[in-house]
Design goal:
- By secondary structure, the chain is α+β, with helices and mostly antiparallel strands.
- It has one domain: Gcn5-related N-acetyltransferase (GNAT) (Aminopeptidase, 3-Layer(aba) Sandwich), CATH 3.40.630.
- It has nine helices and seven strands.
- The chain has a seven-stranded mixed β-sheet, sandwiched between helices.
- The radius of gyration is 16 Å and the shape is globular.
- It is an enzyme of class 2 (transferase).
- Its EC number is 2.3.1.-.
- InterPro entries: Acyl_CoA_acyltransferase (IPR016181), Glycosyl_Hydrolase_84 (IPR051822), GNAT_dom (IPR000182).
Length: about 200
């Protein structure tokens, strides 16, 4: 029995774990990072803190095994994180001093904490919302990913957002097929990543 429900603060550790275990273009990234919290700090934790109405999880008998996280207004969300999320993490994780080509995977994520990516304004006009979705293998299939996406997309529509975008690793062709099947269109490619959009 798999249950889809709103996420809550008690799910934070599970979300961080899932983020890590799917963090290598859908594969387990546990062996890539010395600090298992870093990916979650960037891609999961902020949503529980600042967009909890747009966070949903899948839970089975073994615990939380998947999530979808989003924000209806990406520009406002990024501004909030700049004020209220990144400064505390920047205190914990000093800015890497090594040149980009010499940075470890942990240092590359730490660099993002000090220089968070900002979404291009040209994208936000039509697709102001964004989302992340990750499922562990044990809950993949059976329409569960679609159910998660539908739940979040309905919440974004109800919030008045006209469109949503997401990024996916260029190597993660399975996820790309999933998004296309849901009606997302490829908007553009950048080194290592593909950006998709869906009008709501």
């Amino acid at each position: 029995m798999v249950t889809l429900r709103p996420a809550c603060e008690a799910d934070r550790a599970a979300l961080y774990r899932i983020c890590l275990e799917t963090g290598d273009s859908g594969e387990d990234a546990s062996g890539l990072y010395a600090d298992p919290q870093l990916l979650g700090h960037i891609y999961a934790g902020p949503y529980l803190s600042f967009a909890p109405d747009f966070a949903f999880v899948l839970e089975d008998a073994a615990g939380v095994a998947g999530y979808v996280l989003g924000a209806p207004d990406t520009a406002a969300f990024e501004a909030t994180l700049a004020r209220e999320w990144w400064p505390a993490l920047q205190e914990v994780y000093p800015l890497p001093q090594s040149p980009p080509e010499a940075r470890t995977p942990d240092e590359r994520l730490t660099w993002l904490i000090h220089h968070p990516r900002r979404t291009p304004e040209a994208l936000l006009g039509a697709y102001p919302a964004h989302l992340h979705i990750d499922l562990l293998p044990r809950v993949q299939g059976g329409g569960r990913g679609r159910a998660l996406m539908t739940t979040l997309l309905d919440a974004l529509r109800a919030a008045g957002s006209p469109g949503v975008h997401l990024g996916v690793g260029e190597r993660n062709t399975r996820a790309q097929g999933f998004y296309r099947h849901l009606g997302f269109e490829e908007l553009y490619r950048s080194p290592g990543a593909v950006t998709f959009g869906l009008k709501l």
